[in-house]
Amino acid sequence: MPTFLETVEEQFGSRDLYEVLQVDKSAEEADLRRAYRRLSLRVHPDRASPEEVASATEKFQTLGKIYSILTDKDKRAIYDENGTVDEDSSIFDQDRDWSDYWRLLFPKITVEDIKSFEDKYKGSEEEMEDLRRAYLQHEGDMDAIMGEVLCSSVEDEPRYTALLQGWIADGALPDFEKFSAEPEKRKRKRKARFEKEAKEAKKMKLDGEESTGDLSALIKAKQSSL
């Protein structure tokens, strides 16, 4: 059975907990909290396709453990000094519900919250970096890229495509065949899937002020209004 840090490396490409959260080693708790929220939204099981739910759930659970370690003074000190974690800690209890833990930290995410985040995120350097990272990680697979970048909708794809083509032309990104030679049939299928999800979302009766419905429903409700 792999160690926790081996699992972290397998899932996120690094066993450095700070690197996974994309923060400096000197990050304070508020910085860790923001980073954890952002990354956990990206891998939240509610955002995953049916075939990716299991993998997303594992990553979501791992992020919760990373955040718990780095926000515990003693556990963080041990990790900083030795580069190890205590795997006998209650953090690694198999029965722990990390979705409940996440909701405790972020108890209420509404459509308005997502709209506010989206307004700041779209067009930002953060979004550009996420797009570049997703392109490299998935080697140009637009299905995976659209599922990776936060707040993405069918209307964003032409913008993403233009940005990626520009970076490729400038030599900033490699030209992956999955991207540059993607069949039109696959593009149409992806667009149809987005449109179907948007139509389904219109049937959802969500109260934007009071609802604490699952993340997937809230995101789809927001996308259906675009």
From TrEMBL:
<feature type="region of interest" description="Disordered">
    <location>
        <begin position="179"/>
        <end position="226"/>
    </location>
</feature>
<dbReference type="InterPro" id="IPR052594">
    <property type="entry name" value="J_domain-containing_protein"/>
</dbReference>
<dbReference type="Pfam" id="PF23302">
    <property type="entry name" value="HTH_DNAJC9"/>
</dbReference>
<dbReference type="Pfam" id="PF00226">
    <property type="entry name" value="DnaJ"/>
</dbReference>
<keyword id="KW-0597">Phosphoprotein</keyword>
<dbReference type="InterPro" id="IPR018253">
    <property type="entry name" value="DnaJ_domain_CS"/>
</dbReference>
<dbReference type="GO" id="GO:0005737">
    <property type="term" value="C:cytoplasm"/>
</dbReference>
<feature type="compositionally biased region" description="Basic and acidic residues">
    <location>
        <begin position="194"/>
        <end position="208"/>
    </location>
</feature>
<dbReference type="InterPro" id="IPR056453">
    <property type="entry name" value="HTH_DNAJC9"/>
</dbReference>
<protein>
    <submittedName>
        <fullName>DnaJ homolog subfamily C member 9</fullName>
    </submittedName>
</protein>
<dbReference type="GO" id="GO:0005634">
    <property type="term" value="C:nucleus"/>
</dbReference>
<feature type="domain" description="J">
    <location>
        <begin position="16"/>
        <end position="83"/>
    </location>
</feature>
<dbReference type="InterPro" id="IPR001623">
    <property type="entry name" value="DnaJ_domain"/>
</dbReference>
<dbReference type="GO" id="GO:0031072">
    <property type="term" value="F:heat shock protein binding"/>
</dbReference>
<keyword id="KW-0175">Coiled coil</keyword>
<dbReference type="InterPro" id="IPR036869">
    <property type="entry name" value="J_dom_sf"/>
</dbReference>
<feature type="coiled-coil region">
    <location>
        <begin position="114"/>
        <end position="141"/>
    </location>
</feature>
